[in-house]
Design a protein that fits this description.
This protein has 8 helices and 4 strands. With about 240 residues, it is of the alpha/beta class. The protein has a domain at about 10-120 and about 160-180: Peroxisomal Thiolase, Chain A, domain 1 (3-Layer(aba) Sandwich). Strands 2-1-3-4 form a 4-stranded mixed β-sheet, sandwiched between helices. The longest helix has 15 residues, at about 200-215. It is globular.
Length: about 240
């Protein structure tokens, strides 16, 4: 257990997602059923691998397989006998959403008929926390005041979320519990903008327009929005 990152070990959340969709985990295996996990935190790997001595060969082997981020999806596929796509997506703060985008694309193209999509984040290395604080990314008073003039950074959090995606017609036909419908999705990058970690407003506008177009929805039809607000001067605008 010491050699396993608790993030790839979140298979329990994956099983809960399958059961919540009124599916039988034991019957979820199939040739085109995949697992897509968004995560970008390898703090545990840094701690475990750095703490092992080269002579401890067995420990090193377990540490490598237990802390690789790709294990977050691969371990679930292994346990459930899933033979479809299995990938770990690292796109920083957008990791879980990009994982969902990739799953939607595979469903649309027939590369998967069921997708278990999740995101997980765990705070495990105090040094990483210190570095982010030194870079003035984190709020010194522990409050993420998004879109506020007094915003001074964000607050890190931990959690795990899982959704099970299928083509709507098949989910309805199979009697699955349907919580929501994904109408459209889009992904892009800011390209050669002001800085590597600085948001590029035109690119943000473009990706939202692309997602709306993909969904066949006008912006005037949107009633509810969830924003990515970092509580920083660069991130919020």
């Amino acid at each position: 257990a010491y050699d396993m990152d608790p993030q790839p070990a979140y298979a329990e959340g994956q099983l809960a997602g399958i059961e919540d969709a009124c599916m039988d985990p034991a019957a979820s295996a199939g040739p085109v059923r995949g697992v897509y996990t968004g995560l970008s935190n390898d703090e545990y790997r840094m701690m475990v691998v750095d703490s092992l001595k080269p002579s401890e060969a067995a420990g090193c082997l377990y540490a490598l397989s237990g802390t690789n981020l790709n294990g977050a999806s691969g371990r679930v596929s292994y346990v459930l006998g899933l033979m479809g796509p299995a990938k770990a997506v690292d796109a920083a703060c957008a990791s879980s959403l990009v994982a969902a985008h990739d799953a939607v694309a595979d469903l649309q193209q027939g590369k998967a008929d069921l997708a278990i999509v999740g995101g997980v984040q765990a705070i495990l290395n105090t040094r990483i926390y210190e570095l982010r604080a030194d870079a003035m990314m984190l709020s010194p008073d522990g409050q993420c005041k998004t879109f506020d003039a007094s915003a001074n950074g964000y607050v890190r959090g931990e959690g795990c979320g899982v959704v099970v995606l299928k083509r709507l017609s098949e989910a309805v036909a199979d009697g699955d519990r349907v919580w929501a419908v994904i109408r459209g999705a889009a992904v892009n990058h800011g390209g050669a903008s002001t800085g590597l970690t600085v948001p590029h407003t035109p690119a943000l506008e473009q990706v939202m327009e692309t997602a709306l177009s993909d969904a066949g929805v006008r912006s005037s039809e949107i009633d509810y929005l969830e924003a990515h607000g970092t509580g920083t001067t660069f991130g919020d605008p």
